[in-house]
Structures are given as structure tokens and as C-alpha cells.
Amino acid sequence: MYDVAIIGGGLAGLSMALPLGQAGLKVAVIDRENPADALEADYDGRAIAVAHASWCFFNAVGAWEYMEDHAQPMKDILITDGASPVFLEFEHGAVSDDPFGYMVEMRHLRGALAQAVARCDAITLHTETLVDRVEMETGKAIVHLAADAPLEARLAIGADGRRSPLREAAGIGTINADYDQLAIVTTIEHELDHNGTAYEHFLPSGPFAMLPLQNNRSCIVWAEKPATAKALLSLDEAGFDAELEKRMGDVLGKTHAVGPHFSYPLSLQIARTFISERLALIGDAAHGIHPIAGQGINLGWRDVAALAELIVDAHRLGLDIGGDRVLQDYEHWRKHDTMLMAGATHVLDRLFSNDITPVRLARDLGLAAVQRLRPVKNFFMNQARGAGGRNLPKLLKGESL
């Protein structure tokens, strides 16, 4: 019998396996995909903003060494509201000498986690494996596989994404909101050095972010109404570049989109509960928020760090790691933080994704006030680093379990 069976081998699932396996628990990770596919450049065009607290997590579990050569420090963040001269700048060194975080392309992040998992003998990967169903019995979860013998574990963890079959099978409903936006994601090359600066432009159609990558490149995350986004994606190379430049201005000089373009629908989705009998949900299976603050996957790593700490502590005390006490403590720890972040990103998108004059004036006054009020500004900078909130898990402070 395994101690933990993790359904889903993406960023959340592999990250969850590492601290548990390193603490001596026997872990199974079941994933429907071939992990080699996820390392191809055209599999997923996103780059991930690894907040400072998440960087601490990766250092603590020994995964950072596999991705640091591909990581671009994010030193400053500049926020503007359309054509308004008002701006908000988060400066490197204002609250810490460390960067706000690092930009890492998805394929390099996945590859680093795979390498770290491969060196932990306590973790068993079942790839290209479909889960038929999960049954809960007294003291264990039975994971029935489509083409293999069932696995038994004391706890099942759902890391199987927004459409989580495990969540649905457990009868856990969700709170949903459609933003009526598509996020266009692409990589650009540019003439001028970004100097490690991330730019976030709030436009009437949605946020437009330029996130620094290595080698004079940036990742573009560009929210538009679905019809507009589809029209933009249908343009030829020159037409798409011209539309990019209209929104970017000349801050990075001459630019050119390279590689494929991707699009993702944007919506809010929060599971009504993160737990059920011998089941805990993490990452996108538990919550999906607007990417406006770049905190979505970092919220998932908070889940991982909190749940790992609770499981390892219970294991060392000889308690039932899949019992109600551990699960309820996890729900209590994570639900408040999740709802606050989901609410904040929802309000930000609704507040900034419009061109209503009174609203625009009010938000510009707000940006100007935060820029001038150092204690308030420091609060938001700590949030951007992922170091805000109450009772930060040990792993997010760089401490071992």
C-alpha cells in the first residue's frame, strides 16, 4: 500500500510528490500523459512567474538547481492604466534584496520537477495511465486504473486540473464566473533589454502583461474579448506584430513574436470544499483564478506546501494522514487565503477591464496613492513576492519539513 496516491502529474502533482517522498512516505503519481510530450516547446507556450516564496519551496525540495539556468529574475514590476500617465512601480530592493520572483518557461519547469522526482526512490510514476475510478473504504483509497491492477493508498490527492474527474466523482461542486476573455500567450524577441522588468498594462479589454525571459525575450499574456482574440490569432505574422506594437509602445524597441501563439479561456472556478473522504484537492483542481496578478500556480504551491507539512507532521506522530483531522486542518489553512486571492483578482479585473470615466479616475487615484504611501506599497510588494498572508508554510520560507 502507498501512503499517498496523487492523481495528476503536472506542476502541482509533481511538486506535491517531492516533499512527501523526501520525508520517507511511499508516493504514487498517476498521470494520463507521456511526460516527454510536456517538454516540447509547442506543448504549452506559457512562462510561469515563480514568486519568491515558491522559489523558497523549490530550493527546499532540491528542484531549483534543475531550473535555475533557465530562470530570469523579475526585479521590478511596472503597472500602468492604459494611456494614463499614472503608474505604480514595485522596485527591486525595496522590501528585500531578492527578486520578486523568477520567470521560467513551462517546459523547463516541468523538466526540472521531473528530474527532481526521478532521484527520489520513494516516488513511483505511472505515466500514460488512465484512472477509471477511486473508491474510498475504511482506512484507504483504492485507485482503479483502466489497464492495470488497482493501487491502494491512505490518502488520495487530486491534482488533475480544472476539469478534475476526481473532484466531480466526489460530488464536489464549484463556484464559477466567466470573464468573457481569452488569454493570448506568445513569446517575443525585442531590441532593448528588459532589465528584468515585468510590465502590466491595464487596457479596457483586459490586462496586457510583458514578462521578462532570458536572451532579450519576453512572454506576452494578452487578454481580449473572445471574438477579438480569435481575429488577432488569425492574422499573419506582420499583422500580429503590428497589433502587439500598438499595445506595447516602444518600451522594448522593435519587437517580433516568435514561436507559436496559444490561447486560453479565462474564468474563475473555486471548489466548494477542498476535501472529501480520504481526498484532498490541490492546484487547479481546487481553484482557478484570473492571471491578472500572476498568482494562480503560486496559489497551488501554497496548497502543496501546507498539505505536505500537515501530512509529514501526522506521519511522524503516527497519526492517520488521510483522516479527518489532517484534511480539515488543510481546508481551514487554505480556504481563507484562496478566497481572498480569488476575490482580489476578480475585483481587479472588473475594476480595470473597462473604460468608464468615473471608474478610470478612481483607479488612477488609487494607483497614485499606493505609489506614494510606502507602508501600503510594501504590503502589495510582499503580496507579489508570495510572502503575504497568515501562517506561511515552512517550505515557502525555505525551511525543511
Brief account:
With 401 residues, this protein is an alpha+beta fold. It is 34% helix and 30% strand.
Structural overview:
- The strands form 3 sheets. Strands 1, 2, 8, 9, 10, 11, 17 and 18 form an 8-stranded mixed β-sheet that branches. Strands 6-5-13-14-15-12-16-19 form an 8-stranded mixed β-sheet, with helices on both faces. It has a 3-stranded antiparallel β-sheet with strand order 3-7-4.
- The chain has a domain at 2-72 and 98-176 and 268-352: FAD/NAD(P)-binding domain (3-Layer(bba) Sandwich), CATH 3.50.50.60.
- The chain is globular and about 60 Å long.
- The protein is of the alpha+beta class.
- The longest helix is centred in the C-terminal third of the chain and has 29 residues, at 324-352.
- It has 10 helices and 19 strands.
- It has helices at 11-22, 52-60, 106-118, 165-169, 226-233, 237-248, 296-316, 324-352, 357-372, 374-384, and strands at 2-7, 27-30, 47-51, 72-74, 76-81, 87-90, 101-105, 123-126, 131-137, 140-145, 151-158, 174-190, 197-203, 206-213, 217-224, 255-271, 275-276, 279-281, 287-288.
- Helix content is 34%, strand content 30%.
- The proportion of strand residues reads 25-35%
The low-confidence parts are: none
CATH topology of the domain at 2-72 and 98-176 and 268-352: FAD/NAD(P)-binding domain
Biggest sheet overview: 8 strands, mixed
CATH superfamily of the domain at 2-72 and 98-176 and 268-352: FAD/NAD(P)-binding domain
Helix content range:
25-40%
Q: What is the annotated CATH architecture of the domain at 2-72 and 98-176 and 268-352?
A: 3-Layer(bba) Sandwich
